Amino acid sequence: MREEILLCSSQDLLEGGLAWGFDVVYAGQACRAFAIRFEGQVYAYLNRCSHVAMEMDYQPNRFFDDSGRWLLCATHGAAYAPDSGACAGGPCRGGLVKIGLSESRGLVHWHTAPNLKPVEF
Ligand code: FES
Asked: Do 8 and 106 form a contact (C-beta atoms < 8 A)?
C-alpha cells in the first residue's frame, strides 16, 4: 500500500536552490534521495547517477548547474532534466529514478512504492 511521508515544508524547497536530502530504502538497499523545486513544481529522485551508481551532489544538496536548468552529477558531468530526471547530456545511461511527491497546504510528502520504502528505525 502506498504511503505518503512528510518530507519538508514548501518553503524548504526554493526554485533552483539547494535540494532537500532524505533517506529511503530502494530495492532493499539504503539510498540517499533528494527533492528540488523547478518551475514551481517539486520533484524528487534517488541520489544515484545512472552512469556509475554514485551520489551526484558536488557540494551537499547542490545539484543545479549555474543556469538552474539542469541537474548535474559532480563526478563526470552527466546532466539530467529537473522535471523528468531524463538524461540531457554527458555519460548517463538512462534517467534518474523518480520518487513521487505531493505538495499541499505548505507541506511536501514523498510517496512510497513497492520498491521504495522508508528507512526503519
Ligand atoms: S558517475 Fe555521474 S557522470 Fe559518471
From this structure: no
Q: Provide the CATH number for the domain formed by 4-118 in this structure.
A: 2.102.10.10
List, as one string, the DSSP characters of 42-104: EEEEES--SSSS----SBTTB-B-TTSS-EE-TTT--EE-TTT--EEESS-SS-PPEE-EEEE
Give the mutation target among 52, 55, 57, 93 for probing the ligand 1 site: most ligand atoms within 8 A of CB.
52
How many angstroms separate the CA atoms of 78 and 76, rounded? 6
pLDDT tens, residue by residue, 5-37 = 999 999 999 999 999 999 999 999 999 999 999
Instruction: Give pLDDT, residue 121.
Output: 66
Domain extents for the chain?
A: 4-118
